[in-house]
Amino acid sequence: MFKTKTDGGNNNVCGKNVYLLRKAKTPKMSQRALADKLQLYGMDVDKNAVQRIECGKRFVTDIELLVLAQALSVSVDELLQ
């Protein structure tokens, strides 16, 4: 599989925003809570996968991007800004 690294070696462009949006929730949402919510939307991830997304070590597919946006109650555009 061909890997393209952008943004200083990150494997995704949404990770930082996932982190910021998760922390902005009231009350703050833990990585485990986000993983649980993502599983309810059909994305099979655990806390460690959320951590890898946030730090840019994991690729995020377009389908996963949609699910992340739903789980965080934001638009895909907000995740990609």
SSE order and pairing:
Elements: H1 15-24, H2 31-40, H3 47-54, H4 62-72, H5 76-80
C-alpha Rg (nearest Å):
12 Å
The geometry reads as: globular
* Main sheet record: none
Total helical segments = 5
The proportion of residues forming helix, as a percent range, comes to 40-55%
Approximately what portion of the residues adopt beta-strand conformation?
A: under 5%
Task: Name some characteristics of this structure.
single chain, 81 residues, mainly alpha
Summarize the structure.
Helix content is 54%, strand content 0%. With 81 residues, the protein is an all-alpha fold.
Structural features, described:
Helix content is 54%, strand content 0%. By secondary structure, the chain is an all-alpha fold. Helix 2 (31-40) crosses helix 3 (47-54). The longest helix is centred in the last third of the chain and has 11 residues, at 62-72. The model has no long low-confidence stretch (mean pLDDT 92).
